[in-house]
Write a structure and sequence with these properties.
The complex is a heterodimer of chains A (598) and B (388). The longest helix of chain A has 40 residues. Chain A has a two-stranded antiparallel sheet with strand order 1-2. Chain A has a single domain, classed as Cytochrome C Oxidase, Chain A (Up-down Bundle), CATH 1.20.210.10. The two termini of chain A are 12 Å apart. Chain A has 598 residues and is mostly helical. Chain A contains 17 helices and four strands. By secondary structure, chain B is α+β, with helices and mostly antiparallel strands. Chain B folds into three domains: 88 residues, no CATH class; 151 residues, Immunoglobulin-like; 105 residues, Cytochrome c-like domain (Cytochrome Bc1 Complex, Chain D, domain 2), CATH 1.10.760. In chain B, the strands form three sheets. In chain B, strands 3, 4, 6, 7, 9, 10 and 11 form a seven-stranded mixed β-sheet that branches. A four-stranded mixed β-sheet of chain B has the order 2-1-5-8, with no helix packed on it. Chain B starts with 15 loop residues before the first helix and ends with a helix. The chains are: A mainly alpha (598), B alpha+beta (388).
């Protein structure tokens, strides 16, 4: 029987990366100046989860405001039903204006935080940073110092953007559509702060993407060809290419917007000779590819978790890998489908046709994932429950994209709650659910502790119920005619809005369960084995948590990432996972080290 | 390949019924849309949507069913390893790429046909000019008259009502005075962005339903219905369709609604003749209407604070301006404030007022209306009334 015997190593340089270096000050200094991709990944994870919390609070505020429609008392003329205005101390309002003001700032805050500070960096910056070198068998990313710089730029950009709240908030929507964004709160710096924040965050995104592309090209372990890479790496690689190519466009666009506001140069504002639709073209030329920066890493997580938890070689590995690249390529030529109601008929028709192209590689991936389950050995733990949840929610998100890509039906559904529901099913049901699957799946590797499985599954089920209650109702609101970004609505929509708000509360409960589960795991969790799920890829060769330099010696790739049918997983121990050895012997993936007795 | 359908006459260009076959469709029509699309293009896209619903549902049930069956059949069992099974199958993979592609091509063409119907107006469509502005819609009828009716929608007491003749093609030529807006007639399933720097258009042709509503026959009935009494439209059937602004445009985006009211052609013509020549309509009423539709979002008439100063007791007072000077708020001042909004700002208010182009009779109306809102003005109004 072959497995690595080199996990117990007394050498101090090879201790866990989480080991404290002296007192509290020294530890903080050590983390703040670290170039270790694992620490940077963990710091990203905590920063992103904190921003997720902030964005979530804004989401709850938005849903709370929409619990009842705003009405005017015919006798007193007073505005009723504006909860946020009441909460912030504006009593006896006679105009809807102050309440609308708060609501508009809340939904902008929610969108900007969730898109720029949570979903875009979520999986690549946290799990990607932590796992990419481990999966490739490398000691670190290609440019470790640049990696630390990206984290600081991320934090700096977030502070910039969030500081606009302290100055009273921004009401442009996260899309900053002109000419409204060029004129609102004229003379006040907060819109510029928010826009510059997004601009700065773009640099973090570009640098991380660049780092990952070079890492994948240059730092694969000996023996690892392109088609021996885990699909998570393929996905991160594809999305990193989009980040590098598309993010400069939004950077320039946002800068032009700042020029227009601060220097009065007319680019988008027709009052100064500009064209507002030009802004939309620029904006979506970045923001549509970025939709795939958001979802591709999630698809990567799902591919890996699914294969490991079903203990089955992924079905159609090459198809999934090429589908990732295909999605990345097509994503650059479909931006116009965000603008069917403001473009010429010819342009709309061309973009509609191109949009359907993107559906095909996406569908192929779903077929492959379900094909992977066939004749597998499927475990039901939190990562797998979240993975199945992803397949369910993402399928709804993908299929509801069809009536939006179809021209005749989009003219009705465009800018309605149907769109809101659709992109929440893709972004939250896709990316955030995949992030939850990934966090649980690699939690033992990251922190060396197990989490409580029952609490994890309970949290996942509650999130599932809450999510569907919140957003399924919004599809119906959309088809029935509810426009998005409305601080109030006509009374016919109240029933569905009420259900949606109750759903948001259930979601909160689900995420709180996860939060306590994580904290409990860090405090009193059982020690995690090196390979709790019986994974095949290189990160499972490393210790849990990995040593500072990831591996004992230099690992060599000896088999494909999902060869469950012919190779014994690393650190194979029947006590950890009750699976018999495969019938015929491939060699296990081991860390070959000259100074080691292997 | 299906050629693009450019309707010369509107009827019969789309085979709506082909898609509208299944018995359960009526249930879903009601669940999704609360009634059938009120134009031909709207009905077609409803049918297409419901067809897509069945298409998506079939795929979804098939995929999730497979997933569930596999999860049960191949759940992990202690001591049992997964049997060897293929990890790819080229014919299967080609099939599940090619078949969905063909289906998507079909969906694209269906969507394209419905889109052309919704976008290309018949050559003989009657043209109306529509303006979007923060945060109201206003419309000019073909005879140059502006729309003059209002009704409450949501939290807004007076949203404009636009009268259109039923059963004839109508084309709206739209533009915006400030930021982007979008004109969404939900019952017609159409939406078009309204831009500040170029005209966009939207067309529809809709009829009255089998059970239309009727205008009040006399003043008492009108009061009971909460409508204004219009002698020319007494007892005339009508059909209302709500309009929302669908492109976020700032603070009162959610209140920027309007109503499209369809009436039979002959009644519509009669009503147009009346509003073109509002003979005998007192200036105060014209002013009140202007306030309701164009000023009420910023100026109150009951003394409550808002974006702009209240009109209650505004006329005839000595106003303090932001440059430290002061002066009487008389007829000249009001006229100047309407024509040059930023010239003199009342202390404590910013330069937020847009230029709203009013006709001479409307400016007179606003002055007359403001006089009735202040004690000083009410006295001053009497000799003015005698002069007329």
């Amino acid at each position: 029987m072959a497995h690595t015997a080199d996990t117990h190593h007394g050498d101090g340089h090879h201790g866990s990366y989480l080991e404290r270096k002296g007192g509290i000050i020294a530890t903080i200094f050590d983390w703040a100046t670290t170039v270790d991709h694992k620490k940077i990944g963990v710091m990203y994870l905590f920063a992103i989860l904190f921003m997720f919390f902030l964005g979530g609070v804004a989401a709850l505020a938005v849903r709370y405001e929409l619990l009842v429609p705003v009405t005017i008392d015919p006798n007193t003329g007073q505005v009723q039903g504006q909860f946020l205005a009441a909460l912030f101390g504006s009593d006896q309002p006679t105009s809807v204006s102050p309440g609308n003001n708060i609501y508009n700032r809340m939904f902008t805050l929610h969108g900007a935080i969730m898109v720029f500070m949570v979903i875009v960096p979520s999986i690549p910056a946290s799990l990607g940073n932590f796992l990419l070198p481990l999966m490739l068998g490398a000691k670190d990313v290609a440019f470790p110092r640049l990696n630390l710089l990206s984290w600081y730029i991320y934090v700096f950009g977030s502070i910039f953007a969030v500081s606009s709240i302290i100055l009273g908030g921004v009401d442009t929507g996260w899309t900053f559509y002109t000419p409204y964004s060029a004129t609102t709160d004229a003379g006040h710096p907060k819109v510029v702060l928010m826009v510059l924040g997004a601009f700065i965050l773009g640099f973090s995104s570009i640098l991380t993407g660049l780092n990952f592309v070079v890492t994948v090209h240059k730092l694969r372990a000996p023996g690892m060809g392109w088609f021996d890479m885990p699909l998570f790496v393929w996905a991160i690689y594809s999305s990193a290419i989009i980040q590098v190519l598309a993010t400069p466009v939004i950077g320039i666009t946002l800068l032009l917007l700042v020029f227009e506001r601060v220097l009065g140069i007319g680019i988008f504002d027709p009052a100064r000779g500009g064209d507002p639709v030009l802004y939309q073209h620029f904006f979506w030329f970045y923001s549509h590819p970025v939709v795939y920066v958001m979802i591709l890493p999630g698809m990567g997580v799902i591919s890996d978790v699914l294969a490991v938890q079903a203990h089955k070689k992924i079905f159609g590995y090459r198809a999934i890998a090429f589908a990732s690249l295909g999605i990345a390529a097509v994503s650059f030529i479909v931006w116009g489908h965000h603008m069917f109601t403001s473009m010429s008929e010819l342009a709309s028709t061309v973009f509609s046709a191109l949009t359907f192209l993107v559906a095909i590689p996406t569908a192929v991936k779903v077929f492959n994932w379900i094909g992977t389950l066939y004749k597998g050995s499927i475990a039901f733990n939190t990562p797998m429950v979240y993975t199945l949840m992803f397949l369910f929610l993402f399928s709804i998100g993908g299929l509801t994209g069809l009536p939006l890509g179809t021209l005749a039906t989009d003219l009705h559904l465009h800018d309605s709650y149907f769109v809101v529901a659709h992109f929440h099913y893709v972004m939250m049901g896709g990316t955030i659910v995949a992030l939850m699957a990934g966090i649980h799946h690699w939690w033992p590797k990251m922190f060396g502790k197990m989490y409580n499985e029952t609490a994890g599954i309970l949290g996942a089920v509650i999130v599932f119920i809450g999510f569907n209650l919140t957003f399924l109702t919004q599809f119906l609101l959309g088809t029935q005619g509810m426009p998005r970004r409305y601080a109030s609505y006509v009374p016919e929509f109240q029933y569905l809005h009420e259900l949606s708000t109750y759903g948001s509360w259930i979601l909160l409960v689900g995420f709180l369960i996860h939060l306590f589960n994580f904290l409990a795991s860090l405090a009193v969790g059982k020690k995690a084995p090196a390979n709790p799920w019986g994974g095949m890829t290189m990160e499972w060769v490393a210790d849990s948590p990995p040593t500072e330099h990831n591996f004992h010696g230099d690992p060599v790739c000896t088999h494909g990432p999902y060869d469950f049918d012919r190779v014994v997983p690393p650190h194979w121990d029947p006590k950890d996972y009750p699976l018999p050895a495969p019938e015929a012997g491939g060699r296990p993936m081991v860390a070959h080290s000259p100074d080691k007795h292997d | 390949m299906i050629p693009p359908t450019i309707p010369s006459s509107v009827s019969g260009s789309i085979e709506s019924t082909m898609l509208h076959t299944l018995a359960m469709n009526d249930y879903f029509q009601d669940l999704f849309f609360k009634g059938r699309g009120a134009t031909e293009g709207g009905a077609h896209s409803d049918d297409l949507y419901i067809w897509l619903w069945w298409f998506c549902l079939a795929w979804f049930v098939f995929l999730m069913g497979l997933m569930a069956v596999f999860c049960v059949l191949y759940r992990r069992r202690k001591g049992k390893i997964a049997p060897k099974s293929p990890s790819h199958h080229t014919p299967l993979e080609v099939a599940w790429t090619v078949i969905p592609t063909l289906m998507l091509v079909y969906i694209f063409f269906q969507g394209f046909r419905g889109y052309m119907n919704k976008m290309v107006a018949p050559g003989d469509a009657m043209e109306f000019n529509l303006v979007g502005q923060q945060w109201f819609w206003s419309m000019t009828y073909p005879n140059g008259a502006e729309s003059t009716s209002v009704k409450p929608i949501g939290a807004k007491a007076a949203s404009p009502v636009f009268y259109f003749p039923a059963d004839v093609p109508v084309r709206l030529r739209m533009n915006s005075r400030d930021v982007m807006h979008a004109f969404w007639i939900t019952d017609f399933r159409i939406k078009q962005d309204v831009l500040p720097n170029r005209y966009t258009t939207l067309w529809f042709q809709a009829g009255l339903s089998k059970n239309p509503k009727f205008h009040p026959k006399d003043a008492t009935e009108a009061k009971a219905m909460g409508m204004e009494f219009i002698a020319d439209l007494a007892g005339v059937p009508y059909e209302d369709h709500i309009v929302f602004c669908a492109e976020y445009c700032g603070n009162e985006h959610a209140e920027m609604a309007a109503t499209i009211r369809l009436v039979p052609m002959d009644a519509w013509k009669k009503w147009m003749d009346y509003i073109e020549n509002p003979v005998g309509k007192p200036p105060r009423d014209i002013g009140e209407f202007v306030w309701k539709t164009k000023c009420a979002s910023c100026h109150s008439v009951d003394g409550s604070p808002n974006t702009g100063p209240t009109w209650k007791n505004a006329f005839g007072r000595i106003a303090e301006f932001s440059d430290g000077t002061s002066g009487p708020a008389d007829e000249n001042y009001i006229r100047e404030s309407i024509l040059y909004p930023a010239k003199k700002l009342v202390k404590g208010y910013g330069p937020n007022m847009p230029l709203i182009s009013l006709k001479e009779s409307q400016i007179e109306g606003v002055i007359a209306y403001m006089k009735t809102l202040s004690e000083a003005g009410a006295k001053a109004a009497e000799p003015a009334g005698e002069q007329k």
